[in-house]
User: Fold this.
Amino acid sequence: MHTARVQHQPRLPVATAHLGEQSVPYVFRVGQDHRHEFSHALVARKYGIQTRDITLLPIGGVARLERMPEDPRQELWVAIAGPLANVVLSVILLVVLQLTGGLKSLADLSLQSSSFLARLTMVNITLALFNLLPAFPMDGGRVVRALLASRMEYTRATHYASVLGQVMAFILGFIGLLFNPFLIFIAFFVWIGAAQESSMVQVKSALGGIPVNRAMLTNFATLTPTDRLQQAVDLILSGYQQDFPVVSGGRVVGILTRQDLMHALSRDGVTANVASAMQQQFETADSTEMLDVVSQRLGEQPLHTMPVVHNGELVGLVTMDNVGEFLMVQAALEQSKKPNSV
Assistant:
């Protein structure tokens, strides 16, 4: 069973160690962020999508899914699961407060002077409203994208949702200048998130349906485990390749990165074997895999190079620079097809 890994901010233990009137609401909110993000993860798992990890940030949390659902209806449910969980708990808490006499009116809800249940209710209401703002990377932005994607192409839907998010960021920033400087930070966060989401979807769309063997590097050097590090040094100085697949018996057994090479040189000198410095934990791509999937995997791993294999034998390499160059070529070719292009 997959279990999401929760990453806490370094200063969180400080907040929990000294509980005062100002820190208690923050601790409440962190607990609700846990539940909010796990709600996303649970619904995503229903659609066969695993959650890699959950990161708690000063202004909320982020559940990092393996991928977003391609069906707009599924994305809608995944996106709205978090705020819906906050709304449901808020309603339950309000009912309990009314039955126990702990709340005479909604005007009594406060993070500073209310009872524990009233504070918890206010935290959940605030989280639900904040996350439903129609702007990436908040849940409301994904809800807008899902609704638009049910009526138009996914990339266009993402573009419109991103533009709406940046408009929201501008409004928040303007309000922040007048009343609350913290809103400027949130506006910056929203603006960057909207731009990144649009860019990511455009890249995925451009690479979709293209097999990796159309973009992989085929002119590259390899090493063997018994080669001396001097051989790697000579290859780096005589060309542009930075990472080298290490091959033994026709199979890839490791990758020697430039960084690992430098560390090994400073430690053991040029006479050490490549096997002593190479990375043995690495991923490979099949030559028939789609480039968008491979580029996503490449971006999530610590190594910058991924060997491409066919029937177990090395046939190419894929790097992020390689993918970027392929995108530039594709964009130039698309431009040449437009009328009146210069």
Notes: The domain at 212-329 is CATH 3.10.580.10 (CBS-domain).
